[in-house]
Amino acid sequence: MVTSFLKSFFKKLSLNPFSKKSHIKLGLYGPPNGGKSTLANRICMDWLGEEMSAVSHIAHETREIKIKEQVSIKNKKGKELTFSLVDTPGISTKIDYEDFIKKGLKKPEAKKRAKEATKGVIDSIKWLDDMDSVVVVLDATKDPYSQVNITIIGNLQARNIPVLIAANKVDLKKSNIEAVKAAFPQYKVLGISAKYGKQIEDFYEQLFALAK
Amino acid sequence: MVTFKFVPYHEVEGLSSAKRVNKLLRIVKEDKIVIMEGRLKRQEEADLIEITMEEISPKFKGIELSVICPDKDKQDALQRIKGTFADVLLGDRQGLTIIGPASIVKKIESNPDQIELFTKDSRLSKKVFRRR
């Protein structure tokens, strides 16, 4: 109880002697199917040589928080950045198990997925407070003015958590990075293709700026 | 038939965050579309999503949510000062918050100038809310 009080006290003063700089938590946040897990896999494959999360075309594939500890990346100048990568379930305001049935799942499986997905959304929101930096992964082929996107970014801003917006899927013709930039002009927006690694070197450089 | 329920700011301003969110969600669960004067705080928006997820069931599939508010970048200095004074004196009642049950509202598309609300039944007309 005393430790908890002291942690809370020092956190308010931004002087937390319990925290370690080497334990930066970098969160991947965003709506479902934006490519968070694909990006997490790209980062882990590039720097650890192994994948982190399963990916699927059916929404809410990631239904629980996944953490990969001690991910170290290096920039062109040889500087190293170590962080814990946190892949979060997509945040959504609605979940209908019938949508999963339409995607080919059987009813019991669809209901189970829906239930797990709701818990995943709750966990993602609860974990916001634990993040040191966040990459918001948006599907650049979709309308960026969704209230979910605005709510996620607004909540990060309210918590003073540094944000980088990754406008993903720029390999697709329908992608519109300018629309994402116009929707969030106060943030750094970087167009990437997590699937094909497009602009991924620039993305890694931006992580250094984000984690400062 | 689609029912809209207007919630004036004075009806929610004295409520705690939890009560405010629960009041709005209760109306939505009655299959009504809430049009609230003003907007929720950022944390309240996150709370609304969280509580919505807790209440998801085969009957209640969630919500569609959108906020339309004045674009401060397009306001001149005097308008911004007036807006800030109004916020301080009257509370954050600028803008409109629209929350509908996902079983009725298929999609709310918004951009800084207008909101388009698409209902599940395509025979119903598309409602367009424009910022004044």
Structure commentary:
The complex is a heterodimer of chains A (212) and B (132). By secondary structure, chain A is of the alpha/beta class. Chain A has one domain: Rossmann fold, CATH 3.40.50. Chain A is built from 7 helices and 6 strands; from the N terminus they run αβαββααβαβαβα. Chain A has helices spanning 2-12, 36-47, 97-102, 107-127, 147-158, 177-183, 200-210; strands at residues 24-29, 66-74, 80-87, 133-139, 163-168, 188-191. Chain A has a 6-stranded mixed sheet, with helices on both faces. In chain A, strand 2 (66-74) and strand 3 (80-87) form a beta hairpin. Chain A is globular, with a radius of gyration of 17 Å. Chain B has 132 residues and is α+β, with helices and mostly antiparallel strands. Chain B has one domain (3-130). In chain B, 34% of the residues lie in helices and 30% in strands. In chain B, strands 1-2-4-3 form a 4-stranded mixed sheet. In chain B, strands 5-6-7 form a 3-stranded antiparallel sheet, with no helix packed on it. In chain B, helix 2 crosses helix 3 (42-55). The longest helix of chain B is centred in the middle third of the chain and has 14 residues, at 42-55. Chain B starts with a strand and ends with a strand. The mean pLDDT of chain B is 84. Chain A binds chain B through residues 91-97, 111, 114-115, 118-119, 121-122, 125-126, 128, 143, 145-148, 150-151, 154-155, 157-158, and chain B through 42-43, 45-46, 49-50, 52-54, 56, 58, 61-67, 102, 108-112.
